[in-house]
Amino acid sequence: MGTEIEPHGPPTSLKILLIEDNPGDARLIMEYLAPIDDEKFDLVVAERLDSGIELLREESFDVVLLDLNLPDSDGLATFENLHDQAPMAPVIVLTGLNDNVTGLAAVKAGAQDYLQKGGVDRSVLVRTIRYSIERSFLEWQILQSNQTLEDRVELRTQELEAARELASRSEKLAMIGQLSGGVAHDLRNPLGAIKNAAYLLKRRSQNNSSDQSIDEISKWIDVIEREVTNANDVITNLLAFGASKDLVLSELQIHDVVQDSLDSLSLKPGISLSLNIDAGLPPVLGEASQLTRVFQNLFANAQDSMHSDGRLSIDAQRQEPCVKIVISDTGCGIGPDYLEKIFEPLFTAKSHGTGLGLAICQEIIDKHNGSITVESQIGAGSSFTVLIPIAP
């Protein structure tokens, strides 16, 4: 609605809305409120409830004097209708003689007070008006204080929830850090031996005269090499999470970092690459090896989500005060239940993997004072947005 009464302390001059259809009663109240000395009243009269409500929408009043029996409304419903339209307006109900029941009902419903017509004089009317305004002002202050308290409680609850989530994440990081050293030491040595053996076996197989034998040996050697590489990636991720070293930041060109990350990516058959990096992008502040790790992980995840005829899109542009890099795919997409969890350590929706890749990405980007977010739709693909601050 339009203008509503705004509670305030007792003014020196009061603007009063009288909603009364009886000319004699209205004239009597006008006489009671005639200016005397420094006490002034600005009285506006409406003869119907709807016209009174319309005035409340257009102007501000300090108090409303309301007759309950009007041409377009009757009884307690008159006050209830007005109160719905202007809940903060101090309202004094005018009732007939000996009609205390309706007056009390109006006060219980939110009116400040009630007066019986013919049973008041100027002093009673003026005193009731001023007391009603003061009570309304105090009620408004209490409502404001309650709202402020509720806002503080809500804010504190959000802070505690954020702190709980951060503590949970820290516990996971600590657990991973404790495990990573032992796992890396125990696995890397045998994996290195397996990889060397696979390399030697592959070289010897090239001297074998049987083409079928060579193909069979090469096939299994490729499997060994792939699985060893996967296991080594797991160890690398564990070590990356176990390390808490500070980054050494320097000026970098995003184009160079993205290109270095793509050099290690072997596109699957049927997957196309779309690269769109704005010319003249300003340098960012970062550590090349860490950012390369982020993009390698995002590129690999995007490719894993797609089958044939997929498209990996990489776009970079300036978005003050950052450079924005968007990695999009046309893959299977991520369900809404997973979107809120994909950056959590150890969480994964894949049938393989440790659930550390995206958590590491977020940790690295956080250390760069940037951000990483995701949007996804099932069956339509996903889009990861990385923001990295421009170098000062």
Pairing-aware structural class of the strands and helices? alpha/beta
Strand order of the largest sheet: 2-1-3-4-5
* CA-CA gap between termini: 49 Å
How many alpha or pi helices?
10
* Estimated helix fraction: 40-55%
CATH superfamily of the largest domain: Histidine kinase-like ATPase, C-terminal domain
The total count of strands amounts to: 12
Described by strand count, sense and barrel closure, the largest sheet is: 5 strands, parallel
What would you call the shape?
A: rod-shaped
Q: What's the domain count? A: 3
Overall average pLDDT: 81
CATH class of the largest domain: Alpha Beta
Radius of gyration: 38 Å
**Which regions have little confidence, pLDDT < 50, spanning 5+ residues?**
1-11
Short description:
The chain is an alpha/beta fold and 392 residues long. It folds into three domains: 13-120, Rossmann fold; 161-242, Helix Hairpins, CATH 1.10.287; 250-389, Heat Shock Protein 90, CATH 3.30.565.
Give a verbal description of the structure.
By secondary structure, this protein is of the alpha/beta class. It folds into three domains: 13-120, Response regulator (Rossmann fold, 3-Layer(aba) Sandwich), CATH 3.40.50; 161-242, Orthogonal Bundle (Helix Hairpins), CATH 1.10.287; 250-389, Histidine kinase-like ATPase, C-terminal domain (Heat Shock Protein 90, 2-Layer Sandwich). It is 51% helix and 18% strand. It contains ten helices and twelve strands. The protein has helices at 23-32, 49-58, 76-85, 100-109, 122-205, 211-242, 254-263, 288-304, 336-339, 357-367; strands at residues 13-19, 40-46, 63-67, 91-95, 113-116, 250-252, 272-277, 284-286, 311-319, 322-328, 371-377, 381-389. The strands form three sheets. The chain has a five-stranded parallel beta sheet, with helices on both faces. The longest helix has 84 residues, at 122-205. The two termini are 49 Å apart. Mean pLDDT is 81; it is low at 1-11.
